[in-house]
Amino acid sequence: GIQVEQSPPDLILQEGANSTLRCNFSDSVNNLQWFHQNPWGQLINLFYIPSGTKQNGRLSATTVATERYSLLYISSSQTTDSGVYFCAVRANTNAGKSTFGDGTTLTVKP
Amino acid sequence: NAGVMQNPRHLVRRRGQEARLRCSPMKGHSHVYWYRQLPEEGLKFMVYLQKENIIDESGMPKERFSAEFPKEGPSILRIQQVVRGDSAAYFCASSGRNMNTEAFFGQGTRLTVV
């Protein structure tokens, strides 16, 4: 099946810093989403981005489907950004189901 | 428009009991997915259902686990004779008529087996 690798696995930032999280995948995809799992365990949709670039406030994402990667940018980080960021992809050959990466654990210190 | 609703939020079962987890998809969504998250790990796919049909159950353990999505009512994930290793967070997601559209997740059910 498709492999999803996220990097870095852990990231510690000072409040106000910027960061880039990466998601590499091993096969063609028709669906890619970024999620934030907050410290209470809730999964929050950040972006639905099978290709192209999107922005939402301090967050933006870019997916280059032909090169099989996606990037999530967080600017001017805040302590509330702490948590785990997951990338989830749906391969063209796997109708319906998504495969998640292992996540990047972000800690933003005040 | 209510989101994906899961209940209960927390469930404690003794070893050998049955656990029933419920998921009501977002209004208008006909595709339901169940995922399991073990402590300190990512989410692993379990099963994909449409109304009255199991489309893909390749991630379901072969024994003790079953899922359904009846014509009326919520989707149910059933775990029989639970063991300590079943302790995890179980998430349900739903998506619209086109299965390749954005999926939305519920808040999860945290199962603890004692």
Notable characteristics:
heterodimer; A: 110 residues; mainly beta; six-stranded mixed sheet; five-stranded antiparallel sheet; 11 strands; globular; B: 114 residues; seven-stranded mixed sheet; four-stranded antiparallel sheet
Explain this structure to me?
The complex is a heterodimer of chains A (110) and B (114). In chain A, 0% of the residues lie in helices and 59% in strands. In chain A, strands 2, 4, 5, 9, 10 and 11 form a six-stranded mixed sheet that branches. A five-stranded antiparallel sheet of chain A has the order 1-3-8-7-6, with no helix packed on it. Chain A is mainly beta. Chain A has strands at residues 4-7, 10-14, 19-25, 29-37, 43-48, 52-56, 59-64, 69-74, 83-91, 99-100, 104-109. Chain B has no helices and eleven strands. In chain B, strands 2, 4, 5, 6, 9, 10 and 11 form a seven-stranded mixed sheet that branches. The chains are: A mainly beta (110), B mainly beta (114).
Number of strands of chain B: 11
Gross morphology of chain B: globular
H/E element string of chain A? EEEEEEEEEEE
Quote the distance from N terminus to C terminus of chain B: 37 Å
Total helices of chain A: the number is 0
As a percent range, the share of strand residues of chain A is over 45%
Q: How many helical stretches of chain B?
A: 0
Shape field of chain A? globular
